[in-house]
Structures are given as C-alpha cells and as structure tokens.
Amino acid sequence: MMQEKPIRMVVAGTGTMARYHVRRFTSFPGVTIVGCYDRSQRRAEEFSREMGLTYATSDLDALLRTHPVDAVSGAVADSEHYYVAATAIRHNTAVFLEKPFTTTVSEAQHILALQQDYHVPVVVNFSKINYPSMWGMIHAIENGFAGTPQHLDLSYLQSWLITTVWGEWWRDPRWLWRISSSHGGGGALRDLGSHLVYVALCIAGPASTCNVTTEQRADRNAASASGYSCDMNDSFSIRLTHTNGIHTTIRGSYAEAGHVNTVRASLIGSERVLLSDTGAHQNEMNTYRPLPLRSHLTPCASGTCTQHTIHSSQDFEHHAVGTRSHRQPSRLSECNRFWIAALCPRDSDTLPPR
C-alpha cells in the first residue's frame, strides 16, 4: 500500500481560531504545522513557542519563498484574507480560509483569477454546516424530502454584546474587533451573515436580488477607552430572491436577548416543512407535513411517535422518506424527528465562534 506524502502547513494568525486550526490539522496523520504568520513579529514568535512550531514571521511571502509548504491555513482578521490567500497562491500553495472569503468583491474576483492561473485548491470554511441538524437538513432538501423548496428562513442570534455570557466584551479583543472597522471588523452582517448567505445559496441556489438592512442596537459606551472604534452594525436583515423564484429571509444579531449562539433554519417545501434549531438541539431536525391521521401508525404512550437514527448521508438518503412519525395530539400535522450522527466527529460544541 502506497504511503501518503506528509503535509507541511503554515498557520496564518495567532488567536483562538489559529489554535483551533493547529489542533485540528495536526490531528490528521502525516500533517505538520511548521510555522506561523502574524502582522506582529512578537505575536508570531510567542505563538510559535507556545505551539512548538519552527518558524515565525510577519512576512508570509518571505517565509513561503524560503521554506515552501503544501498549504496555508488562514485564521486572521477579515481584512487580511486577501493578502494571505493571494500570497499563498502565488507560491503554488493551497489555501484554507475562514469565512468570509474576502471583504470586497474585487478582492474575491482577483483571488478566483489567481486560482485559475495557478490551479491550486482554495477552500473557505463555513463552520455552521458542521451542526449535524443543519447537515441533515441540507441533505434532506437535496434528496427531495421536502418536495419543491418554496421559502427559506434563516437566523443566527447571539447576545454577547448585551450580556457577559462570553466575558466582558468591552475588554476582550476577540469580540471588540468584530464591531470595529478600525481593526478590520465588519459587524454582525459580515461575521454571522456570511454563514447564512452560504447556507441559503447551498439550499436555494443563486440569488438574483438582495436587500440588506443593518442596525446598531446595543450601547457601546463601556468600550469607549478600548482603542477600538466600535462603529459597526450589531444586527441585520437580508432578503434574497433566488433565480428559481424561492425567497429567503435572513436575520442575525449580536444583541438578541435569550440566545447565546443559536442558528435556526426553516424551509417550507411543497411536501414538508423542515426545521433545524441549534438552540433547542444541535442533533435534531424536525419535519412537519399536514396530513389526515393514518390508521396504520402505531400509538405509544404520548400518541404516535418513533425516532430514527441517521448514521451517514447514505443512511439518510435511504431512510428519509420512510421514517415514521410523531403525531401531534391535534392531528393537524405529522412531525418526524431525525437524530443525526455525522460521518465523522463534529466539534460544534467546542468550535470557537467565528
């Protein structure tokens, strides 16, 4: 059996997500992180010592020129995505980026042009599809379980800007930069919205029109001495019209009381309504279908109910339509519950917010 070639990587970034990248990539056999890049040479050196890496630099171009690697993993501020991706591609090096791809359309178009010239892989990580319930919902729609999609509703709600659920945000750069144009942040729209737009395009296809509204709801006075501008939006709404006629409504916020980190998706199809709500259960997808009561369903103590465990995408495709149901007492709807286990271990609970 042919032995796979070892993979050498450089991580760009020195924050929480960069540490996550090092941990996850080095968990694969044959993968080694050999160095890191940061705009600050001091931070790069401190991170390299902490993680046991060989190289540390504030000049990614020089590092890749003198020490070629197979891939660069980007966990930097949004404003640096273009620099990291373009530099890696010009050195014929594969790129793994956290979302968003870039901060402008022109930057994105240039990266795509470079990728076509150099023919190296460029991957963007939209981690919200790591939730098993969201993963299962996308597969259910792809396999026609809901019938023809008609309307999609998506939301991503957090409350860290009006609580201390993730610490004192006004003292912590992990949160301050997100609402500060001075430090490359794009607010909730770019941070949370990019995840949801990606899901919308996966489910409903290309969009022909897009309408966006942004707001600043939360008071930022606590951060007045932080050195961060704290001038970006904390809430937004988007309405997409897709080329196939489907409409998608999207909403997101850093300042939504009662939600720590909730991603919700609801699809109305011609045959069923599908619902994924990570605030209720990350591994559960509910489906509803208006049908008269069917006499062959077997009653249990609380009505007619069963559960079905999904172990892989193949299992889902094979069993979805035949899954039995949980009948609501009103007999007005059929509600199927899917308990979805991913093909490989998912880290939704431990993944740093990104």
Secondary-structure-derived class = alpha/beta
Contiguous helical run count: 10
Number of strands: 16
Uncertain regions: pLDDT < 50 for 5+ in a row? Answer: 292-352
Percent range for β-strand residues: 25-35%
Order of SSEs: EHEHEHEHEHEHEHHHEEEEEEEHEE
Our Rg estimate from Cα atoms comes to 22 Å
Helix share of residues? 25-40%
Main beta-sheet strand count, sense and barrel state: 10 strands, mixed
Question: What topology does this entry show?
Answer:
Elements: E1 7-12, H1 16-25, E2 31-37, H2 41-51, E3 55-57, H3 60-66, E4 71-74, H4 81-90, E5 94-98, H5 105-118, E6 122-125, H6 132-142, E7 149-158, H7 173-176, H8 187-191, H9 193-204, E8 207-215, E9 235-242, E10 247-253, E11 261-269, E12 273-277, E13 284-289, E14 308-310, H10 313-319, E15 326-327, E16 334-340
Question: What distinguishing features does this structure have?
Answer:
single chain; 354 residues; alpha/beta; ten-stranded mixed beta sheet; globular; disordered C terminus
Question: Can you put this structure into words, describing what you see?
Answer:
The protein is 26% helix and 27% strand. The protein is an alpha/beta fold. The strands form two sheets. Strands 7, 8, 9, 10, 11, 12, 13, 14, 15 and 16 form a ten-stranded mixed beta sheet that branches. β4, α4 and β5 form a beta-alpha-beta unit. The longest helix is centred in the N-terminal third of the chain and has 14 residues.
Give a brief description.
The chain has 354 residues and is an alpha/beta fold.
